[in-house]
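Long-time lurker, first post. I've been practising inverse folding by hand and with some scripts of my own, and I keep getting stuck on stretches where the structure tokens seem ambiguous. Below is the full token string for one chain I'm working on. Before anyone asks, I'm not after the true native sequence, just a reasonable design that respects the backbone. If someone could post their per-position residues I'd love to compare against what I wrote down in my notebook.
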């Protein structure tokens, strides 16, 4: 926690808004997506979905295949507790909705479904997208799959299992957007990045969650920024966003959202 506080103070000192951006591509993204103040009708759906989860007292036996929770190591957890401590925040879900609506990705891959708050937002933003999401814990996966069916989200394919095994089978497929939201360790993050680079094209977007989760996670983010295939990155503190656009000069932006 102390590391994250120091990292956030450093972020505040370095960060800017759209007026500190000289790339037209990033300027338009920040102005028209990040800072879009429209109160979309879908936000109500996203909020109601999370509200239902926060009220749900169902007990699940949780199997953590990644770094786990910073707040609890208990194996038996209520859905409400997972939604509060590990689920995507409403602010991030709304930004993810705007990003998907802005870029309109057809093929989406998410590593780390959890309760499906982020997946739900992606589906609402582009109902035509083909969304593949992977969850390591069988009990959470079963709960979330039933919840997707309850909400009639028919464009989501949920895979239960180890990320390494799943992405090895998926990597022949190209993806327009990949959301990395599971196993917050340096080694795993870099392995997933290198593996899924094979699925990226010029207009693909990679989003890494919790890049300041720990010092090793920040080190992973710094390594990703330096990769020769990466041209533009945006650090929003809680997310690191990566672009591969060959027409762009290599630049790194730190943006307050």
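-- Answer (accepted) --
I ran through it position by position. Result:
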């Amino acid at each position: 926690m102390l590391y994250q506080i120091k990292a956030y103070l450093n972020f505040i000192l370095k960060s800017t808004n759209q007026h500190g951006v000289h790339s037209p591509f990033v300027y338009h993204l920040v102005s028209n997506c990040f800072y879009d103040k429209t109160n979309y009708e879908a936000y109500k759906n996203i909020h109601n979905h999370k509200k239902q989860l926060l009220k749900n007292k169902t007990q699940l036996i949780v199997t953590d295949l990644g770094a786990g929770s910073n707040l609890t190591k208990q194996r038996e957890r209520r859905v409400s507790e997972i939604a509060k401590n590990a689920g995507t925040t409403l602010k991030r879900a709304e930004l993810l909705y705007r990003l998907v609506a802005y870029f309109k990705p057809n093929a989406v891959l998410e590593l780390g479904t959890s309760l499906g708050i982020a997946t739900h937002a992606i589906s609402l933003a582009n109902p035509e997208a083909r969304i593949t999401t992977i969850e390591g814990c069988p009990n959470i996966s079963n709960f979330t799959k039933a919840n997707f069916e309850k909400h009639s989200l028919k464009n989501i394919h949920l895979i239960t299992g180890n990320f390494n095994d799943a992405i090895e089978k998926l990597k022949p497929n190209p993806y327009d957007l990949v959301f990395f939201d599971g196993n917050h360790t340096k080694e795993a993050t870099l392995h997933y990045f290198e593996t899924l680079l094979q699925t990226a094209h010029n207009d693909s977007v990679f989003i890494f969650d919790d890049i300041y989760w720990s010092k090793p996670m920040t080190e992973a983010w710094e390594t990703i920024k330096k990769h020769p295939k990466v041209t533009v990155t945006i650090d929003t503190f809680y997310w690191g966003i990566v672009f591969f656009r060959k027409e762009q000069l290599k630049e790194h932006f730190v943006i307050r959202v």
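A couple of notes from the structure itself: Confidence is low (pLDDT under 50) at residues 67-73. The chain has one domain: 2-254. Happy to go over any region you disagree with.
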